[in-house]
Specification:
There is one protein chain. The chain is mainly beta and 128 residues long. The protein has helices at residues 14-17, 36-44, and strands spanning 5-6, 10-11, 23-30, 57-65, 68-75, 90-94, 105-109. It has one domain (20-109): Alpha-Beta Plaits. 10% of the residues lie in helices and 30% in strands.
Length: 128
């Protein structure tokens, strides 16, 4: 008799027994004209397998970098647009014209390593 789990080995088929882990993607270059709240809302409303999910964005950051913005976003479930996003690769997409009139390609780094801007204070800090 075969059991799907044993104390020594853990689950034999882990994907059947545990949901996929949330993952974080880095999106860039995003034009500086893109509104942070509207971008977060857009990303949160992307369709996922099984339909739309409320509160799909678990963490979100948008920070300036050189002449554009960089976003990091952690999804509970990967939206369809990022399903082909495999480690070591990138996926390009365009934001809707209501968010970005330039229609420039945005790149999702599927397995980024290294330093990325995560936060930029809205005003210069005061040291008084």
């Amino acid at each position: 008799m075969s059991f799907p789990w044993s104390a020594r080995n853990g689950p034999q088929n882990e994907q059947e027994h545990s949901p996929p882990k949330p993952r974080t993607l880095r999106l860039s270059p995003i034009p500086t004209s893109v509104d942070e709240n509207r971008l977060r809302e857009y990303l949160g409303n992307l369709e996922c397998e099984g339909g739309f999910e409320t509160e799909n964005v678990l963490a979100f950051s948008l920070a300036p970098f050189i002449d554009w913005l960089v976003a990091t976003v952690t999804f509970n479930r990967d939206p369809f647009v990022f399903k082909q996003c495999l480690p070591g690769y990138t996926v390009s997409f365009q934001l809707p014209i209501t968010l970005d009139e330039s229609r420039e390609d945005i790149t999702a780094d599927c397995d980024f390593h290294g330093i990325t801007p995560l936060y930029h204070p809205p005003e210069e800090p005061s040291y008084e």
